[in-house]
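We include this case.
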Amino acid sequence: MAVDGKPFLDPVETRLFSRGSGPLLKLVRGEGIYVWDEAGNRYIDGSSGPICVNIGYGVREVWDAALKQLERLPFAHSFHHAVEVVVKCAEKLAEFTPPSLTRVFFCCGGSEATESAAKMARQYHLERGEGSRYKVIARWQSYHGNTLGALSMSGNIQRRRLYTPMLLDFPHIPPAYCYRCWFGKTPESCDLECAWALETAIKAVGPEYVSAFIAEPVVGATLGTVPAPEDYFKIIREICDRYGVLFIADEVMTGFGRTGRRFALEHYGVEPDIMAVAKGLSSGYIPLGAAVASERVYEAFKSPFFHGHTYTGHPVACAVGLAVMEYIERHNLVERAAEMGRHLLRRLQDLYDYGIVGDVRGLGLFAGIEFVADRESKKPFPPEKRVHQRVYEACLRNGLLIYPGSGTVDGVRGDHIQVAPPLIVGHGEVDEIVDRLYKSIGEVKRELRG
């Protein structure tokens, strides 16, 4: 089927059990920051897929690394065997992460990474004789993955709703969401109650039952790119240390240069006990994630970590991860993301020309735009208006891919999009992304008015 000259696939007519609820655009090729569909139409990938393809498409060094390992040894069971490329990938990842993080446990993606981190935290306390500690405190309007453990930690109301009876009873505190402060504060009156809420939750649950606190340094898919206030994570670190709670940083979306630092938490001068990574680790070329622990956490383990999967430490995946990290370093993409990110956020201010744009925010090459029916009151559009989806469809017509999201305000109401092109993007390409986005939002505004 074709819509506006663009080829789509109806999953109902195939054997696919599709994730989506509608037709899928049929893509066939990618190079740099661009992808092409089956009809030859070219699109700028303005969101790096789901904030994933950090180094862009078609990088020959990554293909060569995968092929070389496929020819040499495509698989080895990590429970019994060691492969040189897996060890090298772990060493490079430990170099890449903050200094206190020294031990790498590989997995296949972000949901596995956060779940591995939660289980690692649980066993850490068991090994130290504190067997009552098992609860992970998280934040509402967060997203940490779709496996049942990761979803139990997540505060994404839409994703949780269907599976609530199956989820663990983990506590949640308010998010650090300055545009819509849950405490009714302004930046001038803020005392970071959103951070101190962690201490209240720990006391309410009982410190002896709390294993860890997990947070995204910049909240991604659920809130639409919301950085934490400047001192937020310093308070979080202080509270975790005071009560013997491990701090897990979910850097699945924000890692590997995305925010203009190797990892977003570096902006806040704080190091976690465990960091969950994925997405940019392999730049989407192959499934790969990891939980990276501090030496303090690792040294507590007197018995093996009772966790893992068949593909834990997959040699080909680790060959890709190693090649991606080396590419990021060789081409100075972290520094480039900082420079291009400043340009992107400057240009995105133009979107305030439209009254339906309530907030533009971000860090590095990681930006979010929240839409409102009224800018002064910040009133969201009714969900049935599907504003986020309308913007996505308008961008698609104009040759731009972005990442839409809904439920921004309370899990039901609210619309946002995320803009996060590959880190190889240039000034002119950033301008083109914003120009196409500006045109698309204008079209949606006229539709809504009509």
In short: The chain has a mean pLDDT of 97. DSSP finds 13 helices and 20 strands in the chain. The first helix runs from residue 48 to 51. Residues 86 and 303 are 22 Å apart (CA to CA).
